[in-house]
Amino acid sequence: MFPYHRFFLNNGLEVIVHEDHSSKIAVFNLLYKVGSRFELPGKTGLAHFFEHLMFGSSANVPVFDRELERVGGSCNAFTSPDITNYYMTLPAANIETAFWLESDRMLQLSLSEKTIETQRKVVMEEYKQRYLNQPYGDVWHHMRDLAFEKHPYRWPTIGKSLSDIEGYTRADVWDFYRTHYHPGNAILVVAGDVTLAQIEKLAEKWFGPIPSNSAGKNVILSEPSQTEKKSKVHQAKVPTDALYKAYKMPAKGEAGYLEADLISDILGSGKSALLEQRLVKNGKIFASIGGYITGSVDPGLLVFSGKMESGITAQVAEKALNEVIEEFLDSEISERELQKIKNQGEAMKTYESIQVLNRAMNLAYFAHLGNPDLYWREFEEKSKIEAPQINSWASQLLKEDQASVLYYQAINQ
User: Fold this and answer.
1) How far, in Å, CA of 390 to CA of 381, rounded?
2) Does the annotation count 51 as an active-site position?
3) Spatial distance between the Cα atoms of 344 and 341, rounded to a whole number of angstroms
4) Please, what are the domains in the chain?
5) 14, 39, 51, 318: which one is catalytic?
6) What percentage of the chain's residues is helix, strand, coil (to nearest 5)?
7) Looking at residues 230-236, what average pLDDT do you find?
8) Which end of the chain is more exposed for a tag (fewer CB within 10 A), N or C?
9) Antiparallel, parallel or unpaired: β 403-410 and 242-249
């Protein structure tokens, strides 16, 4: 566990300070509680589009990156279905520059017609290159649309379609900015060679005067319970067939979430995992296979995906996958196998904690879930889970009537 201090400004901004004086670097991480799950049909991809717009100009900052580079800093950002996260690393002596830059674009971003159109072209090109022109690039467009009927998880973060991105109006962009980009919807974490008193003063100086917005967000539709298996065949010019099989699972923080995570680890994480050993190393059907969870704030997916050996269909591969899953459900998890997975998790958490940036991101993310301490509580709870709990949840989750299957078929070229 690493120490932190937490306080709130009057406008609702949550601020977390993690002091680490082992180097002269500081990390400035600003998380906005907005991702693609707050979008509406026909306006999808706005959260990601806005991530691009935020690196344009603001009232007092003509070029964001240039001003940061002048003081030896670097920056980046990412958008997920649940959050948008902006982060900077810079010499701790220049930390006030980060406050100036980030507060200026929170309060008065320059959303000119030229900026909007420039970034529209950039995002549309990204969409084409990464999702339309890459082999298997559109998998999650099909998979999400298949698995979810009502919830906005049914489209990917980039957006459901190019036509949605083409259709954003300036009014759409401004409305999104006013609704989501304000102190009451943000969590700031400053970590590194800083002090609590210093950050309290800077936070009040730069963010204190910015008003919050009381306007409500869109109502997120709940996903109805799935009662039967869903499947879809998609054909494309790819090297081999691929299989994607997803089961519904609990949301992060809910009962069963950590068990689902362990199930995915035991079955599909790494070269020693059960699926890898049975279907790749000692089989002739899969060229590769893995398991993972979407790890989302609302109920998400436990996914198994793999690519077939040449000439093998995804339907044949699913039968082989099902056989291994059925054997897993009928057997008991050994204490040795479970401990190995827990040890791997502990090693990963230790590795993550080495970098100040990772610590800052985790503090922000778990504060967004309700409390930064959840970062450690989750790990402690996971380490206490025993095999019978995992077996019990596996039998509840790995059911065919809760599965959504995408058969990604290779067209003969």
Assistant:
1) 13
2) yes
3) 5
4) 5-206 (3.30.830.10), 230-410 (3.30.830.10)
5) 51
6) 45, 20, 35
7) 97
8) C
9) antiparallel
